Structure formats: structure tokens, C-alpha cells
Amino acid sequence: QLPTGLYKKVLVILHDSVLPYMNEPTLMMDFLTVAYGIGGAISLLALNGLFILIHQHNLEYPDFYKKLYSLLDPSIYHVKYRARFFHLTDLFLSSSHLPAYLVAAFIKRLSRLALTAPPEALLMIIPFICNLFRRHPACRVLVHRPGGPADMSEDPYVMEEKEPSKSRALESSLWEIQSLQNHYHPDVAKAAAVLNQFLSEMEDDISGLLELSAYELFDKEVKKKAVDVPLEFEQVRGLFGKKNDIFAEHFSLD
């Protein structure tokens, strides 16, 4: 048992400062799988090491995607290691051999959590979701379901279900992204509106959006050049501006 602080320090450097120099990196399998099961930031940091063992050393982890799905909670858009987590999640969901129900569950859960996410996270997650639709066309039923949310008395998706296959995500629709089309931040509303159109085959590059901060968004808005908007108005007639103002007979605006 390691202290939480030490766990984090080890996992941050493990994938690039330890595993490449070990004769048998597979010896770290038990350590990383246990760390992955702890939850919170420790699980997020264990993803880097697990990624190397799965892709380079044939580690089999039957419940990997189930655990990855369970890591998606409201804090995921606010944690310090958000960029690292979504970079790896993007890699893990890149395979075209993943079943549609699994990808749909990730799309639906990310969209539901996006309802309370800050704008800088939304500008990253919406292109992320669009890329998942491009890779897995079978999931587009979430956007193009006949009638959409209007024909549903309630959303069949079960948010509390820990097993993606039982979440009924494919039976649902993506009303959450439709709600974000009315977001107070114009850039978010514009990004969400992309799903109303036909998606191009070329994936969006989200690498530059992973570490987008609230400060950068604010700074961008502040530096925008002000545009003079011409206003059309009626010349004031009378004291209260009305055409047939009885007060105009007795009072003058000179």
C-alpha cells in the first residue's frame, strides 16, 4: 500500500521513465491493474502504463472498457489530468472493431456529463464525440433517430448502469448536444450545431483543444476587435417620444 501522493508521483513518470528501461515491463502488470482499480486520479494516471502494456506487451484486461466507462463522472471535465485522460481515451476508442453499443454508451455518457461542463471542456468534447461518430457510423442513430427526443416520453438511457452493454444507449437520442446548441457561449453553440449537418469524413484534430483553459477563452474574447453596430432609430417627437403626444402641445424639448 502506497500513500496517495507517492502513487501519483510514480504513475506520472512510470510510462516514460521506468517501463522503457525494464527488461520485463510485464512485471508491472499487477501493480498497474490494481492502481487502475483504485479510482479517481490514480486510475487516470494508471492509463498511460496500461496503454503501453496492452499495445506493446499483449496485456489482456477483460474489464478494461467497463472500468474506463466507470471513470466517466462529473469531475472528469475538471481534473488536472484531463488532457492526458482524453488523449488516451481517444486512442482506446479508435478501433473500428469495437461494438456499437460500447461506443454509443461512451458517447451518451460524455454528452450527459457535458451538460454541467465548463465551456473550455465542451469545445474539446464536442469534436471528440464527432470523431466517434465518424469512426462508428452505426452510432449515428443517436443523432438521426426519426422523431428524436420529441417522440420519447423519457430517455431510455440508464446513467447509473455500470455495464455499458446494459445502459440502453443505442435506444436513446443525443438530446444533450441539442441542448448545448443553446449554450450561453457562442463558440460552444456553434460547435454543437455541427451535428445538425452532414459530418465530413476527415476527423477533427483535438490535440490543440485538450489543454484549452478558461483563461485562454477569456483572453480570446477580450482581444476581439469591437465592431460598431449601426442602430436605426426614430427621432423623438414629444416628451415621451410618441407621434401624437398630448404633452408635445404644452412642453418643448428645445
Automatic annotation (TrEMBL):
<dbReference type="GO" id="GO:0030692">
    <property type="term" value="C:Noc4p-Nop14p complex"/>
</dbReference>
<feature type="transmembrane region" description="Helical">
    <location>
        <begin position="31"/>
        <end position="54"/>
    </location>
</feature>
<dbReference type="InterPro" id="IPR027193">
    <property type="entry name" value="Noc4"/>
</dbReference>
<dbReference type="InterPro" id="IPR005612">
    <property type="entry name" value="CCAAT-binding_factor"/>
</dbReference>
<feature type="transmembrane region" description="Helical">
    <location>
        <begin position="85"/>
        <end position="107"/>
    </location>
</feature>
<keyword id="KW-1133">Transmembrane helix</keyword>
<dbReference type="GO" id="GO:0042254">
    <property type="term" value="P:ribosome biogenesis"/>
</dbReference>
<protein>
    <submittedName>
        <fullName>NOC4L protein</fullName>
    </submittedName>
</protein>
<dbReference type="Pfam" id="PF03914">
    <property type="entry name" value="CBF"/>
</dbReference>
<feature type="domain" description="CCAAT-binding factor">
    <location>
        <begin position="43"/>
        <end position="192"/>
    </location>
</feature>
<keyword id="KW-0472">Membrane</keyword>
<keyword id="KW-0812">Transmembrane</keyword>
<comment type="similarity">
    <text>Belongs to the CBF/MAK21 family.</text>
</comment>
<dbReference type="GO" id="GO:0032040">
    <property type="term" value="C:small-subunit processome"/>
</dbReference>
